[in-house]
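Table S2 (text version). Query chain:
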Amino acid sequence: MKTIHTILREDFGQLDRHLVRTELLTEAGVCGVDYEPARNGLSIAYDPAVLTAAKLADLMCRHGVYPDPTGSSADAPKRCDSE
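Corresponding structure-token output:
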């Protein structure tokens, strides 16, 4: 299990956070989603055996989450192509 710390592109409040969390948890390989005290902060726990870095970056882009972690690493997902 690995955890990546990211941020939401935009945060429109509690409803938006709940929707993003619910949608992320439906994805294969995502095991947990928690909000952090930092502005728009989010941590995603995932299984790297099921969810590769490329697939993780794709699903993060689809759900409005920046793929750049706050603490970058070599196996971290890369930014969305649209940026």
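Notes on Table S2: The chain has one domain: 2-62. Residues 1 and 47 are 5 Å apart (CA to CA).
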